[in-house]
Automatic annotation (TrEMBL):
Pfam families registered for this protein in UniProt: Fumerase
Keywords, in A-Z order: 4Fe-4S, Iron, Iron-sulfur, Lyase, Metal-binding
Entry GO MF terms: fumarate hydratase activity
Residue ranges of domain Fe-S hydro-lyase tartrate dehydratase alpha-type catalytic in the record: 23-289
Class of the enzyme per the UniProt entry, highest EC level: lyase
Name of protein: Fumarate hydratase
Enzyme Commission (EC) number: 4.2.1.2
Similarity-based family: Belongs to the class-I fumarase family.
């Protein structure tokens, strides 16, 4: 069998340059911060219709107006333009040409936050607390998938809601009721500090690191989309109902719409463990994707 050269392999795969990755990430950064997703805006309108608190309705009206102004005037929806979280699905038939993949993403964040006039919110050392002044480093989740494309999703994650997120190892015997209690306890502890109405991402299973990753990924799911497994979809419905019964309401000032949606993702786990993570997303539930 003849040896296959590196050049022959490269000729059989699709080349995507680091410059294209950089520029795509840059555009996604400011587009995500300027334009709330349609499902979130629709969620505002539905919450407005069902909200029983006059003050709560007034707050939601302001959120709707703010989203309209941000989109039409090309301005950030929120001054906290977040820690830049990037989900990358990289096709196994792609060759990254011209440099390092992760560095291209970081360069894209630098470019996007500068050109989009977005606030730099990242410190390089968590203890020394010196701002990097370019919003890097971002947090990158990379998954190898079939195909010759790259899907990039930018999730600007605000500090308030992220600070209110939590993770816990339950005993397996605590089961679904233990999961529900932990989620509700987390939401109640967050109160208005997470800037409701919120989107709640719940991860169940996996390991210490995996459960928080899938909780983060859960908040990318559009409002109205339930988990394909019936028992998980039922859990999502029950959690949403119970969260909205807390009365925290829009901006924590009371009302019937504390959460717009609740999404649950699961993963296999060890027989001795039942890890649960709750990742809270504020009403500035920004996300933007592109396929290269």
């Amino acid at each position: 069998m003849s040896e296959v050269s590196v050049d022959q392999i490269r000729n059989k795969v699709r080349k995507i340059s680091v410059d294209q990755i950089r520029d795509t990430v840059a555009t996604l950064c400011w587009e995500a911060c300027y334009n709330l997703p349609e499902d979130i805006v629709e969620g505002f309108h539905k919450a407005r219709e069902s909200e029983q608190s006059p003050l709560g309705r007034s707050i939601i009206d302001q959120l709707i107006e703010n989203a309209q102004l941000a989109a039409t005037e090309d301005r950030p929806y929120c001054h906290d333009t977040g820690l830049t979280v990037v989900f990358a699905e990289v096709g196994q038939d792609v060759y990254i040409d011209g440099g390092n993949f992760e560095e291209a993403i970081h360069e894209g964040i630098r470019k996007g936050y500068k050109e989009g006039y977005l606030r730099n919110s990242i410190v390089g050392d968590p203890l020394l607390r010196k701002n990097t002044n370019d919003n890097t480093p971002g947090v990158i989740h990379t998954k190898l998938v079939a195909g010759d494309q790259i899907k990039l999703t930018v999730l600007p994650k605000g500090g308030g809601s992220e600070n209110m997120s939590a993770m816990k190892f339950l005993l397996p015997g605590e089961g679904v009721e233990g999961v529900k209690k932990f989620v509700l306890d987390t939401i109640i502890a967050a109160g208005g500090r997470a800037c409701p109405p919120i989107v709640v991402g719940v991860g169940i299973g996996g390991s210490f690191d995996k459960v928080t990753e899938i909780a983060k990924k859960a908040i990318l799911r559009d409002i109205g989309q339930y988990h394909p497994e019936p028992h998980i979809a039922q859990l999502e419905k029950e959690l949403l109902e119970e969260i909205n019964k807390t009365g925290i309401g829009p901006q924590g000032l009371g009302g019937t719409n504390t959460a717009l949606w609740t999404c649950v993702e699961t993963y296999g786990c060890h027989i001795t463990a039942l890890p649960v993570a709750v990742n809270i997303q504020c009403h500035a539930a920004r996300k933007k994707s592109c396929i290269i």
